[in-house]
Design goal:
The complex is a heterodimer of chains A (293) and B (499). Chain A is of the alpha/beta class and 293 residues long. Chain A contains 11 helices and 12 strands. In chain A, helix 3 packs across helix 4 and helix 9 (202-212) packs across helix 11. Chain B is 44% helix and 8% strand. The chains are: A alpha/beta (293), B mainly alpha (499).
């Protein structure tokens, strides 16, 4: 074989390789880490460590966007917003992994000052350097071509788009329209514009957004969950203490796993089903590797 | 140049006033400890008309009574030492060229004005806030100036983003500081912003004719204090202009229209004493009232006051159809009449309102209700966990309720318009209102029904409904209703049925 033939052959081989669906080559089983315990910071860390540690996602000098749920003017014990200890543990891990800057934000439904304040998250992060907990600003939304099935284009928050790493930190809770709100639904917080509009076809809208803005890491706060009257809640009667944190790189798998905490099957949550059908992740829990962290 | 003591006090109170104005806002706590309302509580006109119209007393207004009492002893010190509008006038008046005094303002007009206001109050119509000097100033700041400053700062900041992009973040500490301590959180524009500006500007325009023109010839608060001040124990000696000098005529900002010092107009700035070339002028405590002829309002003013007060109290009442339906008042207000008898129209509740739900009424509540706060759910809603408006109201027109009570205070009742609401009108799922409803047990609930939608598809439709006895009418449902035109759910006033 002369040199020319070798080049031809190897060129052919490489292009063939590209053509073959990767899934046939090596299908990675999605991993979901579930940690349980009463120290919410510690279980958050062990869940992330079980996936390989924050260093797997965050490299030195990265800008990280952390998106908790600070959507409502509620206190942490009312289980409508992400627990501050969970958020703090994640932010600390990011900084330890060498993040240049960590931006924490949400677009609340209630007054943003009250929602931020009462979530306890700004106070929990106050002493950390290189961490921004700022209100989202109108001018930072960028119109993004989503080319989705329902949303052709929509305004998304630029801090979420430009971050090197996007970490999605929802709380697991009941939601009247979508049955539950978890990782996929938490992405509504980076959306601008008239968000009420997307309710008429919310499953598709959320799949559209999630296929453009990928969560590199999803950490679901299930330390306490809201079992009814969500997403606002407000009564401690509806709150159940679960003491769990669920982490995964597969957003659908993470959501599917958290669904069980409510006594539901992933098939019963339309957002999860639509996202699965759209290829955003695995919802069949028998095809997911669940590790206790 | 030596600064007089009264000037120092004036600056101190103006600074305090502005400081309190800015701090009258949400600062991360559910409670506001000190707010601008302190000034209104010390407002003698507010307390007097409150007593006359509401015919009860509230401890909130004790400072106002004290000012009345001290004016009886000291004179009109409030005007020359404390009143922030007076200080603003003093600050700008030097730059305004003076013409001749306006003749029609001289004489009794201010007494007619004051007595009309006071008698109207007695006939259950409290109009004092409209012409109260501090209310004029606060409304100008709240509705006109502050939103404008906020708007300019905000636009400038956005403009910097257009130019600098994300590197604007380096400037963020500075802007954050301004935003936290100085600027309004949101740039809201208010109806009546222009009218508020006109009121304030008119006071300044009057300075073209003579110094402290508003204060000496119109201000009802000043006139009221002057009525008491004429009995004060402090007397200026000499009471007349001195034959050999007469500088006092130009030095005095308010009281030397005649040869004799007009005691009801003297604001005790003590400029005449300080600047007297011969060191003759003294202010001395004395029990003698003096023999100098003083202008007295007299019987005619009194009778005219009764008549015009009665007239005003009737003519200002305009019962509009909106009164019964969409005139939503701040949380805790139960009786419309009683509310208007107490409301000062100072605009503090609107300034402090977190979600900018409260706006000044233009004519919805009748001419009488001008500037009184009305909740517009399409523009903003009442935040469930917030009770700031009741905390800043100087007269308790909006009652100060404990948070747990406020959460149950009924503003109105939400009613679906099924011709608009998506699940009913278009057979589309929506539920945004139900999702936002802050009541822990949800005042908006839904039933799931199997339906065939208009494209022939079988769907499960979630149809919302209101649980009347839980709904407090906070308006968040109407605020978030995604319909661009008329909302599919609207809050209406819950009126007590009259027997």
């Amino acid at each position: 074989m002369n040199r020319r033939d070798f080049l031809k052959l190897s060129g052919l081989f490489i292009s063939m390789h590209q053509l073959l669906p990767k899934s046939l080559w090596a299908k990675e089983t999605p991993v979901v880490a579930v940690a349980e315990g009463q120290d919410y910071g510690a279980i958050t860390r062990s869940a992330v460590n079980a996936l390989g540690g924050m260093g797997r996602f965050v490299k030195a000098g990265d800008t990280v966007a952390v998106k908790p749920n600070m959507g409502w003017d509620r206190r942490p014990e009312q289980a409508a917003t992400t627990h501050p200890a969970v958020v703090r543990a994640i932010v600390e891990e990011c900084l330890r992994a060498g993040a240049k800057r960590v931006k924490v934000f949400d677009n609340p439904c209630n007054d943003m000052r009250r929602s931020y304040e009462n979530s306890g998250i700004p106070a929990a992060l106050k002493d950390l350097k290189n961490v921004d907990v700022r209100y989202m600003e109108e001018e930072r939304y960028k119109k993004v071509n989503l080319k989705g099935t329902f949303l052709k284009e929509w305004e998304l928050y630029s801090d979420a788009l430009t971050a090197d790493v996007f970490i999605n930190v929802p709380i697991a809770k009941h939601h009247s329209l979508t049955t539950l709100t978890l990782g996929l639904k938490n992405m509504m917080g980076i959306m601008g514009g008239d968000r009420g509009f997307i309710h008429r076809q919310i499953e598709d809208a959320l799949a559209d957004v999630n296929s453009v803005v990928k969560s590199h890491l999803v950490v679901i706060d299930a330390t306490r969950i809201l079992t009814a009257h969500g997403p606002t809640g407000g009564s401690l009667r509806d709150v159940k203490i679960v003491n769990k944190v669920i982490a995964s790189t597969d957003i659908v798998a993470a959501d599917a796993c958290a669904t069980g905490l409510f006594g539901l099957k992933p098939q019963e949550v339309p957002i999860t089903v639509t996202a699965y059908k759209r290829g955003l992740g695995e919802m069949n829990l028998d095809k997911v590797k669940i590790i206790k962290a | 140049m030596k600064i007089s003591l009264s000037r120092i006090f004036q600056f101190f109170f103006l600074a305090l006033f502005l400081f309190l104005f800015v701090t009258t806002d949400y600062r991360g706590k559910d409670e506001i400890s000190v707010a601008l309302n302190s000034f209104f509580r010390a407002d003698a006109l507010v307390v007097t008309s409150y007593l006359l119209s509401a015919k009860t007393f509230t401890l909130l207004l004790l400072p106002g009574l004290l000012v009345l009492f001290f004016s009886l002893i000291l004179g009109r010190f409030f005007c020359g030492w404390i009143c922030p509008l007076g200080t603003v006038i003093d600050l700008v008046t030097k730059r305004i060229k003076k013409g001749r005094p306006l003749a029609f303002l001289k004489g009794r007009i201010k007494y007619y004005l004051l007595f009309t206001i006071l008698f109207a109050a007695l006939f259950n119509m409290n109009l004092s806030g409209l012409l109260d000097p501090m209310a004029i100033l606060v409304r100008f700041l709240t509705f006109s100036l502050y939103p404008l400053i906020g708007f300019l700062a905000r636009e400038g900041w956005v403009g910097l983003y257009r130019i600098l992009g994300d590197s604007r973040d380096y400037l963020d500490p500075g802007y954050s500081f301004l935003k936290t301590y100085l600027l309004p959180f949101r740039a809201t524009f208010y109806p009546l912003a222009f009218l508020s500006l006109v009121f304030f500007a008119a006071v300044l325009v009057l300075e073209r004719y003579e110094r402290r023109n508003w204060c000496r010839n119109l201000c009802p608060l000043g006139t009221l204090l002057g009525l008491l001040g004429r009995f004060s124990l402090f007397r200026r000696l000499p009471a007349r202009l001195c034959a050999d000098c007469g500088d006092c005529r130009t030095l005095c900002p308010t009281s030397f229209d005649e040869e004799v010092l007009q005691k009801p107009d003297c604001i005790l700035c003590l400029d005449c004493q300080r600047k007297c070339t011969f060191q003759r002028v003294r202010f001395r405590p004395s029990l003698k009232t003096g023999k100098e002829p003083l202008f007295s309002p007299g019987r005619r003013v009194f009778v005219t006051g009764v008549v015009s007060g009665l007239f005003a109290s009737r003519i200002f009442t305009v019962v509009s159809s909106e009164r019964a339906t969409r005139l939503l008042r701040p949380p805790g207000v139960e009786d419309e009449e009683e509310f208007l008898q107490r409301c000062v129209r100072c605009g503090e509740c609107m300034k402090v309102c977190l979600k900018n739900a409260l706006y000044p009424a233009s004519l919805q509540a009748g001419l009488y209700g001008l500037y009184s706060p009305v909740l517009h759910p399409r523009l903003g809603y009442c935040e469930y966990n917030c009770s700031l408006c009741g905390q800043v109201c100087p007269t308790g027109a909006i009652p100060r309720l404990p948070l747990e009570v406020k959460k149950k205070a009924v503003i109105g009742l939400a009613i679906f318009d099924k011709n608009q609401c998506l699940p009913y009108a278009k057979k589309m799922n929506c539920m945004v209102c139900e999702e936002h409803c802050p009541i822990p047990d949800k005042a908006i609930r839904f039933e799931s029904v199997e339906e065939v939608d208009y494209s022939g598809k079988r769907i499960t439709l979630k149809r919302p409904y209101v649980v009347d006895k839980l709904c407090i009418g906070c308006g968040i449902c109407e605020y978030v209703c995604p319909l661009e035109e008329k909302a599919g759910i609207e809050v209406f006033k819950k009126t007590k049925k009259r027997r």
